[in-house]
Amino acid sequence: MELVFSNIDLWLADLGQLAYVVAPLVMMVVAILPLPAEAPALANGILFGPFVGSVITWAGALTGAWVSYEIAARWGRPIALRFTRDDIVARIDRGAERAGWWGLLVLRLVPVVAFTALNWGAGLTGVPRWRFLWTTAVGIAPGAVLFTSSGFGLRALWQRSPPLAGGLVLLLVAGGLIWALRKQKSSAT
């Protein structure tokens, strides 16, 4: 694994300043598409360290969330109105309005709520742009720091104890696979 980290360091050195553009773009894509953001956040911690990596993770995710919101507000809402009865859309809008900023912030802080779905849903329901942006900025900060710092910690752990770090990685991968299989099984029924 040390070879992997030294190859990452070489790749980062070869990429130079462009790495500071590529990493946030990856986070943006992950925020727009329904892809898990944990792996790129961990990679940002490994590549850039806990502080700079967290800023890159946070800024990229926030920008991607904003892009999703704007696309949904601009083009998604008119499409939804063509295929859904007006009273249903109005009921969903009222629910989002009743939840207010507090409800949106709480949803951002709950890790099981799908990040991408919330981005698109806020645009579709007409959540005010400023409310969406500030609750997203505040709500994603803890996760960005946690996952990015975990990547930095994993690298540090590997340098101290490769068997322990390898075991932890295997445990995380196995846990992730079990979780994904259970989620897939529950959604199929």
Q: Main attributes?
A:
mainly alpha; 189 residues
Please render the helix and strand layout as text.
Layout: H1 2-15, H2 19-32, H3 38-48, H4 50-83, H5 86-109, H6 115-125, H7 129-160, H8 162-188
- DSSP helix fraction: over 70%
> What would you call the shape?
globular
Poorly predicted regions: none
The number of domains? 1
Descriptive report:
The termini are far apart. This protein has helices spanning 2-15, 19-32, 38-48, 50-83, 86-109, 115-125, 129-160, 162-188. The model has no long low-confidence stretch (mean pLDDT 80). It is 88% helix and 0% strand. It is mostly helical and 189 residues long.
Summary of the model, kept short:
The protein has eight helices and no strands. With 189 residues, it is mainly α. It has one domain.
